[in-house]
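User: Hi! I have a protein structure encoded as tokens and I'd like to know what sequence might fold into it. I'm fairly new to this, so please keep things simple.
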């Protein structure tokens, strides 16, 4: 394999040495969160993280008593704030992380916001959980709900330990994003008040990418990170979005080294799916099987032409609404769909089918992990293993961000589709 091969990132040639970076997914869940796989445990997370090519995971859900007990039993911390799981393969690193749901009223309007936060030690976790216990229950869900404002939550975290890093999660999601159309704010300042300078980063979410977020000045000036929000360990969920961190010159991994890259906005970039893949990208009504672009939605006065009800305003529309046309610093990112999606698209079978898994396993055996296949392995090497020019072509097109996606909307995921150029009738969005 030619490790010097250039990568094309959104049309720009970039060199990325995969052995010199850390792919991290710091927003995941455990089996103790709602709508999550019952098999989500540390062992499975580590197994599939390695297959994906991830080199660092967040623990997720550390407020849940049973999961916290499991974390303390399975992970061994070091003096640098990294927690290690060890098995027959070796050691794998975690950072303590959690997502909280804040539901409250501010200035006469109800708000629902999810925040992800990173924590340097179990000692700090215990302090946070003691505070949460004073507010309500945390044993019913891995992502518990509390009646606390965004501003007051950040203020409390800074009081407990200023090394805690709070990141607004999937910021454009209509129902639980800080900028969501249903219960969000119009600025970070509005949401976090005098604590806004302690918010160093935002998470894109599946329905947006850095190119969209830099349309808003206060976001373009911050770090833009991306994580999967995975509810299972399958490789089309875990690591489907990730952040690429630098490795230290000494090769040591520490909590501060990772968090400081976020705070200083000097990490490498992110892995992003096409925003259309996200389940809230377009406006629409799932019950009416209708979706449309923000331009069409505006023509319809945001009304569903099928039932006449209000459309659920998606991420694309909301970004355009808040855009101040003052683009911030450009961010490096790789727009790729998961490998299972590409295999499934090529041969026309389900992602979890035996046939799809057979090809996936063959590729992993040959090239070690999925990110290596998605981002680096050369065309000729892929052809030697696959012998299928069509699938190889799709992998290369995916690397260039050229796979068409039928837009997701109102809780319905987008779907990768083949276009007429590949001999299959193009699927059109329902406008």
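Assistant: Happy to help. Inverse folding works backwards from shape to sequence: for each of the 431 positions I chose a residue that suits the local structure. Here it is:
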């Amino acid at each position: 394999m030619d490790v010097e091969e250039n990568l094309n990132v959104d049309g720009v040639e970039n060199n990325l040495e995969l052995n010199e970076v850390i792919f991290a997914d710091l927003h995941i869940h455990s089996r103790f969160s709602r709508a999550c796989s019952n098999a989500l445990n540390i062992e499975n997370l580590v197994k599939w993280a390695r297959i994906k090519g991830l080199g660092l995971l967040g623990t997720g859900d550390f407020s849940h008593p049973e999961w916290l007990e499991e974390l303390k039993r399975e992970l061994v911390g070091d003096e640098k704030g990294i927690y290690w799981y060890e098995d027959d393969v070796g050691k794998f690193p975690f950072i303590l992380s959690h997502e909280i749901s804040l539901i409250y009223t501010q200035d006469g309007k109800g708000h629902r916001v999810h925040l992800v936060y990173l924590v340097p030690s179990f000692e700090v976790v215990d302090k946070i959980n003691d505070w949460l216990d004073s507010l309500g229950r945390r044993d019913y869900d891995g992502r518990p709900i509390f009646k606390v404002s965004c501003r007051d939550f950040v203020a409390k975290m800074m009081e407990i330990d200023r090394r805690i890093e709070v990141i607004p999660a999937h910021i454009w999601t209509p129902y639980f994003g800080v900028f969501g159309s249903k219960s969000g704010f119009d600025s970070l300042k509005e949401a976090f008040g005098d604590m806004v300078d302690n918010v160093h980063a935002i998470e894109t979410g599946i329905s947006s990418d850095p190119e969209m977020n830099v349309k808003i000045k206060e976001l373009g000036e911050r770090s833009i990170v991306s994580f999967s929000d995975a509810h299972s360990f399958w490789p089309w969920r875990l690591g489907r979005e990730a952040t690429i961190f630098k490795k230290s010159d000494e090769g040591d991994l520490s909590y501060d080294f990772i968090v400081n890259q976020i705070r200083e906005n000097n990490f490498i970039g992110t892995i992003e799916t096409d925003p259309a893949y996200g389940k809230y990208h377009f406006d629409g009504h799932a019950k009416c099987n209708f979706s449309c672009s923000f331009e069409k939605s505006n023509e319809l006065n945001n009304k569903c032409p099928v039932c006449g009800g209000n459309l659920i305003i998606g991420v694309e529309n909301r970004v355009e609404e808040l855009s101040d046309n003052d683009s911030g610093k450009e961010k490096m990112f790789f727009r790729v769909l998961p490998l299972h999606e590409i295999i499934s698209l090529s041969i026309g079978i389900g992602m979890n089918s035996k046939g799809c898994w057979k090809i996936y396993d063959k590729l992993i055996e040959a090239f070690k992990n999925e990110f290596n296949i998605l981002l680096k392995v050369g065309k000729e090497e892929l052809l030697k293993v696959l012998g299928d020019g069509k699938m190889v072509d799709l992998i290369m097109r995916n690397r260039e961000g050229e796979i068409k996606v039928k837009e997701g909307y109102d809780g319905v995921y987008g779907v990768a589709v083949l276009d007429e150029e590949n001999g299959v009738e193009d699927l059109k969005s329902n406008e």
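A useful reference point when you look it over: The two ends are 45 Å apart (CA to CA). Feel free to ask if any position seems puzzling.
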